[in-house]
Fold this protein.
Amino acid sequence: MSEIQGHYKEDWHSSWWYQPWLRLLVGFATISFVISVSVHESGLESFFFIGLSLLFVVPLEKLIPRHPIGTFRPELLTDLFHHFVSGFLGVVPLIFLYPLLHEFQWATLTSLIQSQPVWLQIAGALLLSEFLIYWGHRFSHEIPFLWRFHSVHHSSKNLDWLAGERRHPVDQACMSFFVGIPMILSGFSLVDLLIVGVLQNLWDMTIHANLGWRLKLLDGIWVTSEFHHWHHSLNPEARDKNYSGALPVYDWLFRTYYLPKDKKPGPYGIDTHMPETYLGQLIQPFVFQEKTRLFDNR
């Protein structure tokens, strides 16, 4: 840890909002409220990710681990908060947006899209959403204000089944707006959007997971854990590369593709201090901090 990082960590630990009793109180109240609302609105869907991961992804991590990580690793509880709270807050805008924006769809384009076979509609929705995800993701790295929030996601030093859920709600909401609004206005049906969203979310579980498989046959065709782990690497050569969520074709087109054959990704994290608690990670982007991203030549 650098001297500047150590200084910020000391400041955080001495701040009034970092007191254990306050963090416990706010955390308990927040998670209770979000889980209650989620269960009331959509049943047990918020627990689907957890259950699926525990049944399939976690056992695979034990069988073919990429790195030695304990089951109850540091900041596991923090990432559970992110899953329930940030995930919930991130999708709320689209719940209200779809009924409003549906009226502004271009009728001719909507009719053309929805007259196609379902598989072609889904393929088209995937291509468009991946294009938007690529640029939304890239902007979150290249625009300093957006990086403040997206850096929370990159602060995970241990990538596993739950690390990908670490997202600041502002970062999550910005991506939801950036991708969701054009997708809705384009004329795709809500069913198309939901199918593509489910596919992307399910695959997102594996690309962050601590899985040692290489899946070379998918290189350049589909995003793999090896490909995405390089995106989280502190290696200067991999800085700001591999923005795609599922289709690496956009990294090829815009020259941000990075997948060396003779190296392994890691270590992971960011070059600036990030609090270990959920509340701290919510507050951190709003606190002024000197930019210390090493190897950043922009």
Summary: Residues 3-286 form one domain. The CA atoms of residues 35 and 41 lie 10 Å apart. Residues 39-43, 290-298 have pLDDT under 50 and may be disordered.
